[in-house]
Amino acid sequence: MLIKLNKRSTPKSSEITPWGVYQKRRDFLKTAAIAGSIAAVAPSLLLPREAKASAFGEMVTRGRYSTDEEKTSFDAVTSYNNFYELGTGKEDPAENADKLITRPWTVTVDGEVGNPKTFGIDDLLKRYPLEERIYRMRCVEAWSMVVPWIGFELGNLLREVEPTGKAKYVAFETLVDPERMPGQTRAVLNWPYREGLRLDEALHPLTILSVGIYDQILPGQNGAPIRLVVPWKYGFKSIKSIVRIRLTETMPQTSWNMANPREYGFYSNVNPEVDHPRWSQSKERRIGDFLRRKTHMFNGYDEEVGQLYAGMDLSKNH
Q: Phi then psi for 123, rounded to 5 degrees?
């Protein structure tokens, strides 16, 4: 099934946040310190769902750029994860998430910018409008999910720091702290975890920084407190627990490309016509399904992002 997306256009009056709802953001922010204290004690926030159903309240605009496919269950999204900083097994991140303390937390944005800044995570929560984006996510290992992310467009943050004319790429780094990230005690990758995008990819409105899922504060195993989400690329491009974003003139190194350049290229766009050296990418299994389904170019977002790669050899630039 192809993903149906709402086109980017002038917002309808019904989509504009009412003043009263905007004012309620202030009430939410008064509780941010409390939420931070809770996160410090139990950052994964794996409480009964009804106990945390109002984590973002009415702050979130819903439905923009969303697929109409059935969402993957909350339990699956928070228990079957790739997050090597918390362990290499799919269940390891959830088991070790209580070690990932997320307050205090800052994100530095620097490099080829005119206005470098360091943001506290709670400042970011109040700085930009939060939206729910229900995105289809594809893992290179041929499994997929449909996840309702809560976050804001990365482009909003990048424009605030004023990229210079030399800025061509955006590099990301995750936290390095083996006490909070026990997977980093093992040399499975060259820490810190690194990722990168071209600047036009980073500025695309589909690219977001996520701070939550399913109306919940982002659990540790899903990349708390802030992670990248790029729905037309394989999941390992969506770096978790970000502490630095750096704009560069040259293509940055990325962790999986450094570890195994034959299998993991810089772009890592979902391309069913290019097989991974160890398995086919033409089909995928949605978590919870028995049968496989066809994989679509750019994960079904071809109409939205295909023009970014016009004229490129997408088998060579994988």
A: -65, -40
Q: Which CATH architecture has domain 13-309?
A: Alpha-Beta Complex (3.90)
Work out the number of other CB atoms within 10 angstroms of the CB of residue 7: 7
Helix (H) or strand (E) holding 159: helix 154-160
CA distance 275 to 43: 37
CA atoms of 195 and 275, how far apart (whole Å): 22
The helix/strand/coil state of 152 is: strand
What sign has the CA pseudo-torsion 32, 34, 38, 41?
Answer: positive
Give the span between the Cα atoms of 165 and 249, in whole angstroms.
9
pLDDT digits (tens, 9 = 90+) for 238-253: 999 999 999 999 999 9
Q: Who contacts 263 (Cβ-Cβ below 8 Å, separation ≥6)?
A: 256, 276, 277, 278
Report DSSP state, residue 299. G
Give how far the C-alpha of residue 20 lies from the chain's centroid of Cα atoms, to the nearest Å. Answer: 29
Whole-structure pTM value? 0.83
Q: Residue 66 in contact with residue 134, Cβ under 8 Å?
A: yes
Query: What would the two tokens of residue 289 be?
Result: 């399904």
Go through the chain and tell me how many residues it has: 318
Closest CA to 270 of 222, 241, 234: 234
Q: Please write the tens of the pLDDT for every residue from 254-309.
A: 999 999 999 999 999 999 999 888 889 999 999 999 999 999 999 999 999 999 99
Beta strand extents in the chain (DSSP E only): 60-62, 106-111, 117-120, 130-138, 143-153, 169-174, 194-198, 208-213, 216-217, 227-229, 242-248, 283-286, 293-294
